[in-house]
């Protein structure tokens, strides 16, 4: 038996099944088919079945019960509780290990199928004892804290023996609860009384006697008790009828969530009413105070399958609870997450957060030009995803996230009026518009004697310069490439995803430049302001000694350490560059023009 | 967290004491003066906290239900009448009832019992309540208020001279300790006077009402903030401690650092431990650093309103984009910030904390969440020809839940097997076009029958198929015969050896 390296879970259970030949007699549990395969009218229990009745053996009933018990636990507690099944005849057959791969129903079914029918002649040697001994060995394996030992045994006579044999080697176990389930076989006359025997503080035995026909439901109830589950029924689920298309009928589906979910009610099952979900419901955060995995009680029934597949498709179901005062209250949500189904309990009461102070009355509440959309882009560019993490070698993914946010926020004005660097594409469009209107370019005429170059020429020069600049910049920055494409007349949006990924330093801060691009649509206010300026102001502006200057000072005087500026080279500096550069180039071109003259 | 003041209004509260000023004053009067001080403290520093005033004697009444109107609470102190004798059982039943009705069982509360230092005797006495030996013959149906079903800190305020209390002090301490969170017994310094009682209330308020002041940061973008209700994780986590396992003391860090963002659709309603309004506070009024350049800062709130604040920006963007910001609170402890709407008009930035160490399975291990943009391929990609994008969430868990697969047949209810058999026969009747489905069903049934050692079923099925042969044409009959034969020999064959159609 392989040993577990993981920390032992809280609860381990071993189910021991008696596999002696006597169990292969037929029980009274049977299913009827008439020749056409349709349900027979008569109730199946009690009657001797017709020619197409198929009786289950006691062994089949035992497997069904054990598998159902395991199914519930495996579905709800993936790793917290483990169950091992041991089949005992003249030897113990362990059907699954503690490893995660074997803690599942398919493994158990495969192992059950592989068991051979016991030999009649081995009857005398066959006993539950090897199984129980093996069970105790299993439980002790990795110093587990075992609380439950469930055993389905057949014969009460063997109970005493088993108890002694198990309790001897029980020492390392913290607490053992032996549940002996007696299944009276046909012809059994001896009465077994149900009782609990408390042998010591760490060991208790309870004896149950269940008929084969009840076994599954009793074991299911036992699982609920052992694992603190509370039956909950989702009522009024509308489903289309197969036979009568167009009509729909309401069904109920019973599920089992952890009991912690349920408020203290003593009812057998809690009823929660289905609310037909709105089709357009945008995701909304609900105040959830608890979330528990569930499993359906009848996993194969049609209504269950219907509900489950609805949930697994990613839809959510709100569930209502009747209120004391009348009316209804959405109290729970059923939803699947990653192929598992959960019930969320919602906080339905008042919250101490109610009637909060209005943001507009608080700090920063009067500011109206926050860069909400730009920060939205920033957030999108800084979303999280599951990462691998080599603990020895690298920073934790979370630290990487923090570092990334630190880098990306070294210069990040919060309001529109503090930023001009921005939407270059908008600038291009505006330039185009100006050109088509034949507006003069706001270039400084200082130092230019005579009329200077013609407007057309000015525009040509602007476009050429812009293209040169962007071409150079686009080699290191994807967003500049986007602007370049815009300049050249391509649709900028189409190229974003198509452009091959570059291993350049800008990739990391691409998100920022992306937000930058869209951010300064309102920097156009600046240009608009320009348009509304008087000639005098315009010339001042063009000399770069009022607004422009002011903006530069603002940007540069922001408390960025030198080092930070260096690192930001590919981002901010290209922006600065742009402005500085175009200024520089302006003067350069001016001198060129001079030379021409 | 909300506060319930449980005021003893039994006759013994009318006993007079002689103050140092040679004046006689009723204990109830002293209590009321003390409560004034207490409510004044709260109204100046905790405007958003809710408080309620309950009075009890042998019965209880809600004098002022939970409110932020501290004037109403003060008024309530005066108007409340005096009745017969003290029943702690009923008093606490009133508290539990009112709190659960208003806040449910997940909101932590502070209960301040204001009494004269007597613990009563017999029915409804404190000892009886604590020992769990109730002889409440008046309301036998009324469940015991203990253990208190919501996270709760109990304080006892005794309007008595220390020397009057004697053994009752231990009993009161037991009451405070009963919730395991460390409330305290408060006794005024001798001699009793308005001043000493007021001092005692101030002491209590200063010890147990501490506001959180910290920084919310996203890289260099920062905002000074306070949280309402004030976080108190000792009270909240006490319940989980009882459930098992050692819980170390958790405290919110002074800096709440955002480590990244997620879409609301991906976060999927995770269960929370606590929720708090995130309220930005003026940098100028906050103590400590960042003094440079603040000399000229006008401390006027008008000015604060006009200074851009990161909280407001963050809230706006989270709301518009339907996103949440993930905040790391400790190595294994996380929270999220999102826009929460109280009404249709108003929304606020809210911090939700998750349970420390809690695993939100669909997000994977939260400690391994890192910037998506720095991964080899960014998992967030636009979907072609559609709005929306791909997402790395939910993290898929095992697909081995019983409901994930149609392969696991359970025939606990006869109807399950019956409908499975019907399905097989339906396909049998529609051979050869349904051959694929027919053999698939056949193998599912065969496999399940073998797994459950339900061998007799195979024979019955084979017989049914034989009967179908009679109605079918020769080609189909050949298939059916083959299927029936294969079922009969299945028990001696390999489990994984599926029955395959007969080739023509």
Global outline of chain A? elongated
Class of secondary structure makeup of chain A: alpha/beta
| Strand order in the largest sheet of chain B | 9-10-12-15-14-13-11
Rg of chain B from C-alpha positions? 34 Å
- Biggest interchain interface, per-side counts: A-B, 131 and 138 residues
Proportion in helices of chain A: 25-40%
Write down how many β-strands of chain A occur, each being a DSSP E stretch of 2 or more residues: 17
Terminal residue distance of chain A: 96 Å
% residues in beta strands of chain B: 15-25%
CA radius of gyration of chain A is 38 Å
Oligomer: heterodimer
- Unreliable stretches of chain A, pLDDT < 50, 5 or more residues? 1-9, 35-49, 141-172, 262-266, 491-527, 541-597
Beta-strand portion of chain A reads 15-25%
Physical arrangement of strands within the biggest beta sheet of chain A:
5-4-1-6-7-9-8
Shape of chain B: elongated
Count of helical regions of chain A:
18
* Average pLDDT rating of chain B: 84
What number is the mean pLDDT of chain A?
A: 66
Low-confidence stretches of chain B: 286-298
Q: Please count the beta strands of chain B (DSSP E, at least 2 residues each).
A: 16
Helix content of chain B: 25-40%
């Amino acid at each position: 038996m392989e040993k577990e390296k993981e920390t032992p879970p809280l609860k381990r259970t071993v189910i021991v099944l008696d596999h002696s030949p006597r169990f292969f007699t037929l029980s009274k549990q049977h299913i009827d088919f008439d020749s056409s395969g349709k349900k027979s009218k008569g109730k199946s229990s009690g009657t001797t079945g017709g020619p197409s009745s198929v009786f289950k053996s006691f062994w089949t009933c035992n497997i069904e019960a054990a598998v159902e018990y395991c199914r519930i636990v495996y579905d709800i507690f993936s790793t917290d509780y483990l169950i091992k099944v041991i089949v005992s005849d003249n030897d113990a057959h362990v059907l699954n290990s503690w490893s995660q791969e074997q803690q599942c129903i398919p493994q158990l079914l495969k192992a059950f199928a592989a068991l051979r029918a016991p030999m009649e002649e081995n009857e005398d040697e066959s006993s539950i004892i090897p199984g129980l001994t093996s069970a105790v060995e299993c439980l002790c394996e990795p110093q587990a804290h075992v609380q439950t030992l469930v055993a389905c045994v057949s014969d009460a006579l063997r109970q005493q023996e088993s108890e002694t044999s198990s309790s001897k080697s029980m020492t390392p176990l913290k607490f053992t609860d032996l549940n002996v389930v007696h299944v009276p076989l046909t012809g059994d006359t001896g009465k077994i009384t149900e009782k609990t025997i408390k042998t010591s503080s760490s060991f208790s035995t309870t004896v149950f006697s269940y008929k084969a026909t009840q076994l599954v439901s009793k074991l299911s109830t036992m699982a609920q008790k052992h694992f603190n589950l509370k039956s909950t029924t989702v009522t009024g689920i509308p489903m289309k009828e197969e036979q009568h298309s167009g009509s729909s009928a309401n069904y109920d589906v019973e599920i089992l969530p952890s009991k912690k979910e349920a408020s203290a009610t003593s009812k057998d099952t809690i009823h929660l009413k289905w609310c037909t979900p709105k089709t357009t419901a945008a995701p909304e955060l609900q105040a959830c105070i608890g979330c528990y995995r569930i499993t359906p009680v009848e996993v194969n029934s049609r209504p269950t399958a219907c509900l489950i597949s609805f949930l697994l498709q990613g839809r959510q179901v709100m569930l209502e609870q009747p209120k004391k005062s009348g009316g209804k209250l959405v109290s729970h949500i059923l939803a699947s997450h990653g192929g598992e189904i959960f019930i969320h309990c919602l906080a339905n009461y008042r919250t101490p957060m109610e009637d909060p102070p209005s943001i507009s009355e608080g700090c920063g509440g009067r500011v109206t030009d926050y860069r909400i959309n730009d920060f939205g882009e920033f957030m999108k560019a800084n979303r999280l995803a599951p990462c691998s993490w080599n603990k020895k070698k690298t920073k934790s993914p979370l630290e990487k996230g923090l570092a990334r946010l630190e880098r990306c926020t070294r210069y990040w004005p919060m309001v529109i009026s503090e930023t001009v660097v921005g939407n270059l594409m908008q600038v291009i469009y505006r330039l185009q518009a100006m050109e088509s209107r034949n507006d003069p370019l706001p270039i400084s005429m200082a130092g230019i004697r005579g009329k200077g170059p013609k407007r057309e020429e000015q525009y040509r020069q602007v476009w050429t310069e812009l293209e040169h600049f962007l071409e150079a910049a686009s080699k290191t920055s994807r967003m500049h490439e986007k602007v370049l494409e815009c300049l050249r007349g391509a649709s900028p949006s189409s190229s974003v995803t198509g452009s091959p990924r570059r291993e350049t330093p800008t990739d990391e801060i691409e998100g920022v430049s992306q937000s930058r691009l869209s951010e300064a649509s309102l920097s156009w206010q600046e240009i608009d302001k320009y348009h509304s300026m008087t000639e005098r102001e315009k010339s001042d502006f063009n000399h770069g000694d009022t607004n422009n200057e002011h903006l530069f000072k603002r940007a540069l005087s922001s408390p960025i350490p030198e080092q930070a500026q260096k690192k930001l080279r590919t981002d901010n500096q290209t922006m600065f560059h742009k402005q500085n550069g175009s200024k520089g180039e302006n003067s350069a071109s001016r001198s060129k023009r001079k030379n021409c003259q | 967290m909300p506060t319930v003041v449980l005021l003893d209004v039994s006759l013994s509260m009318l006993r007079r004491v002689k103050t140092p000023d040679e004046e006689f004053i009723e204990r109830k009067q002293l209590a009321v003066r003390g409560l004034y001080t207490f409510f004044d403290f709260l109204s100046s520093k905790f405007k958003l906290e809710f408080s309620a005033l309950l009075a009890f004697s042998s019965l209880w009444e809600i004098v002022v239900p939970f409110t932020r109107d501290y004037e109403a609470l003060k008024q309530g102190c005066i108007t409340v009448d005096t009745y017969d004798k003290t029943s702690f059982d009923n008093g606490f039943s009133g508290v539990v009832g009112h709190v659960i009705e208003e806040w449910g069982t997940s909101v932590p509360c502070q209960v301040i019992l204001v009494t004269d230092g007597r613990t009563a005797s017999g029915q409804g006495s404190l000892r009886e309540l604590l020992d769990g030996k109730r002889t409440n013959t008046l309301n036998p149906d009324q469940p015991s208020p203990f253990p208190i079903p919501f996270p709760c800190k109990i304080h006892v305020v005794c309007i008595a001279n220390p020397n009057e209390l004697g053994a009752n002090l231990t009993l009161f301490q037991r009451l405070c300790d009963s919730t395991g969170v460390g409330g305290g017994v408060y006794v005024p310094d001798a001699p009793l006077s308005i001043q000493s009682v007021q001092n005692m209330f101030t002491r209590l308020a200063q010890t147990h009402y501490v506001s959180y002041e910290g920084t919310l940061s996203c890289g260099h973008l920062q905002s000074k903030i306070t949280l309402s209700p004030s976080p108190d994780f000792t009270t909240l986590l006490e319940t989980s401690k009882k459930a098992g396992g050692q819980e170390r003391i958790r405290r919110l860090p002074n800096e709440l650092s955002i480590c990244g963002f997620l879409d609301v659709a991906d976060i999927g309603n995770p269960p929370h431990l606590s929720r708090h309004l995130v309220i930005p506070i003026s940098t100028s009024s906050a103590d400590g650093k960042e003094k440079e350049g603040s000399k000229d800062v006008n401390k006027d709130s008008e000015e604060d309103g006009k200074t851009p604040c990161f909280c407001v920006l963050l809230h706006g963007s989270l709301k518009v984009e339907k996103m949440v910001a993930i905040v790391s609170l400790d190595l294994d402890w996380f929270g999220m910030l999102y826009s929460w709407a109280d009404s249709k008009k108003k929304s606020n930035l809210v911090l939700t904390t998750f349970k420390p160490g809690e695993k939100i399975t669909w997000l994977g291990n939260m400690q391994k969440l890192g910037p998506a943009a720095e991964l080899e391929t960014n998992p967030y990609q636009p979907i072609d020809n559609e709005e929306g994008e791909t997402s790395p969430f939910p993290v898929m868990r095992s697909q081995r839940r019983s409901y994930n697969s149609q392969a696991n047949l359970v025939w606990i209810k006869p109807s399950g097997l019956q409908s499975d058999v019907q399905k097989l026969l339906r396909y049998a009747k529609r051979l050869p076009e349904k051959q694929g489905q027919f053999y698939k069903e056949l193998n599912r049934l065969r496999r399940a029958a073998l797994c459950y050692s339900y061998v007799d079923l195979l024979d019955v099925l084979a017989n049914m198929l034989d009967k179908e042969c009679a109605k079918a044409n020769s080609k189909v009959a050949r298939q059916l015969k083959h299927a029936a034969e294969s079922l009969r020999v299945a028990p001696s064959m390999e489990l994984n050896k599926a029955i395959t159609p007969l080739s023509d």
